[in-house]
Write a structure and sequence with these properties.
By secondary structure, this protein is of the alpha/beta class. The protein contains 13 helices and 10 strands. Strands 7-6-5-4-3-2-1-8-9-10 form a 10-stranded mixed β-sheet. α1 runs parallel beside α2. The chain is globular, with a radius of gyration of 19 Å. The two termini are 37 Å apart.
Length: 340
């Protein structure tokens, strides 16, 4: 079976001005010694185009820690690939606006995890104000901007309070995602558990009135009330199962290819772009086997008997793996809880 690549998440550097308590890496903001060169990154852009990739989410570390970030973005946008940059906003300055406009960026997503005290607690003192400043600079300069909030046991309880602040921002979307216990998040003792249903109920309450698209990411769910509308698309966009290795890939800063960049474990590396072409990795019949060779009989726990199993397939592979190492069983599905 031939698979079509639609989107990629590309970590262009691990260098960062933060060392967040729930960062998915555990390198304390240090870039890798052998990160892809500018020329290698431009070649990756060519390979993504050749495979038909239409969208790239560019991440770090912190994207703006890499001086040639705009050259890499331009290599993608000049080939018709839409690019969204995800940033913590801390380093954002006026010249970033000029460079973003010059390369034809589609949008920028700023990480903002709650009211000032809780955001700064998990990131860095003063980081909330810097992020808000970046959001306002982007919107004032007509660059589409969204907010991504990473939820844990603490900030998930303050969504109503935070919503009143977020409503004042000129953004087009706000996405809520679960903190996954990997990297710093696994080592710092953070309680990443929270009530999925409570968060989904928050979205239900506000999704029609919010002045922006409000929704949950693919590691929260699944198939409870209003599922088709909870993911930020009021026309109805129900979760269709994990797309890692089926429609999407992750690329890290040294060229390792995974089905999803949130599958941050060497066990999920399918190859390296310094050793094999992206086409060779993508078209390898044995690659991404956890999804490409998935069968319903592989489901475990309550997922095995769920009537949505054929579509949902136990939700987010990455979240499942890092929470309890069971790829085919969701550890926090409200639907499963209600059936218990």
């Amino acid at each position: 079976m031939a698979y079509r690549l639609y989107e990629a998440v590309w970590e262009i550097t691990l260098g960062c001005c933060f060392s967040c308590k729930y960062c998915g890496s555990a390198v304390n903001g240090q870039k890798r010694d052998n990160e892809l060169t500018t020329a290698e990154c431009i070649d990756v852009a060519k390979q993504l185009e050749a495979l038909g990739c239409r969208r790239v989410s560019m991440i770090g570390g912190e994207v703006f820690m890499r001086e040639d970030w705009d050259l890499i973005v331009s290599a993608l946008t000049s080939r018709g690939i839409k690019v969204c940059i995800i940033t913590n906003g801390f380093l954002f300055r006026d010249y970033h606006i000029r460079r973003l406009k010059a390369v034809g960026i589609e949008s920028v997503a700023v990480s903002l995890d709650g009211p000032r005290d809780v955001h700064d607690k998990y990131r860095q003192e003063g980081s909330f104000d810097r992020a808000v400043r970046a959001i306002r600079m982007l919107s004032e300069n007509s660059i589409p901007v969204s907010i991504i909030s990473t939820l844990n046991s603490e900030n998930s309880l303050r969504l109503e309070e935070f919503y009143e602040e977020v409503k004042e921002f000129d953004i087009f979307a706000w996405q809520l995602q679960a903190c996954s216990p990997m990297g710093n998040a696994a080592n710092s003792g953070i309680d990443v558990r929270f009530d999925f249903e409570r968060v989904m109920e928050f979205v239900r309450r506000h999704m029609y009135e919010a002045p922006f698209s409000l929704g949950i990411a693919h590691n929260i769910g699944y198939y409870s009330k209003d599922e088709p509308y909870l993911r930020g698309n009021l026309r109805g966009a129900a979760f269709r199962g994990c797309t890692a290795g089926l429609e999407s890939i992750g690329i890290d800063s040294v060229g390792n290819v995974r089905g999803c960049e949130s599958m941050y474990d060497e066990v999920f590396n399918e190859g390296n772009l310094r050793e094999r072409s992206l086409s060779d990795i993508w078209n390898d019949p044995d690659a991404f086997a956890y999804n490409r060779k998935f069968r319903k009989k592989m489901l475990t726990g309550k997922c095995a008997s769920c009537d949505k199993a054929g579509v949902c397939a136990a939700g987010c592979r990455s979240y499942n793996y890092f929470v309890h190492r069971k790829l085919y069983e969701s550890p926090a599905c409200p639907r499963a809880e209600k059936k218990a």
